[in-house]
């Protein structure tokens, strides 16, 4: 009887947690189609806020800067983080320890401290704040997450794997690209996804290091928070849909790849 009561209680708690996390998302999606400006009363179905969103130049520029910054920061930080992680795996213990501690600093530091530090650096070097400064900042705080995602995969590899590949005739580049990288691919992909999410979602650091005329979605939402603008609901809904599509593709694609060889083997 006690086990059954615990099971019922855990089920109720799980349902409450799901409602707590997903109710705001559902609420945002529903009110993005609201016919009025009210955020509490649904007056009827309308696509006017989506139309206004696409016609709003400032909002579209923010979407553009957000996506471009996130994509570039992900590509550059993933490449740099992968090379650094592989290099560390072949380094001496003292080098691994020092670089590992330095790598942990941006993660352990509060974002506001990192933001102020970057702001002071740009001011001291007289670098004009804008898109480039925001991109460099995003690359800087994304690289540690990529390294931390890849290092555990490298630790599981045989230390002599690259040497064995070169003994069999592979060049160092071929050993890296065709032997090491495929083995650590899950770590690289997870690191890239974390980097993209961190860059896409960042507000604090972006707010301090960007200049006039350049803002991402987070900064745009902050500037609009003091006045009611249902177009934000439409923008949020669009982002939710895009993320959901990518998640669906990411989960379905591996299953389809596994299914094809199985079908070929049966045939």
Describe the structure.
The chain is mostly helical and 267 residues long. It has twelve helices and no strands. The chain has one domain (57-255): MetI-like (MetI-like fold, Orthogonal Bundle). α1 packs across α12 and α3 (57-89) packs parallel to α6. The longest helix has 36 residues, at 231-266. The mean pLDDT is 84.
User: Spans with pLDDT under 50 lasting ≥5 residues?
Assistant: none
CATH superfamily: MetI-like
**What's the SSE pattern?**
HHHHHHHHHHHH
Average pLDDT confidence is 84
Share of β-strand residues: under 5%
What count of helical segments does DSSP give? 12
Q: Count every beta strand, where a strand is a DSSP E run of 2 or more residues.
A: 0
Distance between the termini: 52 Å
Query: Number of domains in the coordinates?
Result: 1
> How much helix is in the residues?
over 70%
């Amino acid at each position: 009887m006690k086990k059954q009561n615990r099971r019922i209680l855990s089920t109720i708690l799980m349902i409450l947690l799901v409602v707590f996390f997903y109710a705001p998302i559902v609420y945002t999606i529903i009110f993005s189609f609201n016919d009025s400006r009210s955020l509490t009363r649904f007056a009827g179905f309308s696509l006017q806020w989506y139309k206004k969103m696409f016609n709003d130049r400032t909002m579209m520029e923010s979407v553009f800067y957000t996506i471009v910054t996130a994509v570039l920061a992900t590509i550059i930080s993933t490449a740099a983080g992968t090379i650094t992680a592989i290099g560390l795996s072949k380094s001496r213990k003292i080098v691994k320890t020092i670089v590992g501690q330095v790598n942990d600093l941006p993660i352990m530091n509060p974002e506001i401290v990192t933001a102020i530090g970057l702001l002071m650096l740009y001011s001291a070097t007289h670098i004009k704040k804008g898109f480039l400064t925001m991109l460099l900042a995003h690359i800087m705080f994304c690289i540690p997450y990529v390294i931390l995602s890849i290092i555990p995969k490298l630790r599981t590899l045989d230390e002599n794997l690259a040497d064995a590949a070169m003994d069999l005739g592979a060049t160092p580049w071929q050993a890296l690209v065709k032997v090491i990288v495929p083995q650590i691919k899950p770590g690289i992909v997870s690191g890239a996804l974390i980097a993209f999410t961190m860059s896409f979602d960042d507000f604090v650091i972006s707010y301090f290091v960007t200049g006039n005329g350049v803002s991402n979605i987070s900064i745009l939402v902050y500037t609009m928070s003091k006045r009611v603008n249902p177009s934000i609901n439409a923008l949020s809904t669009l982002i939710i849909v895009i993320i959901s599509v990518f998640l669906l593709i990411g989960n379905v694609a591996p299953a389809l790849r596994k299914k094809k060889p199985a079908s070929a083997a049966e045939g």
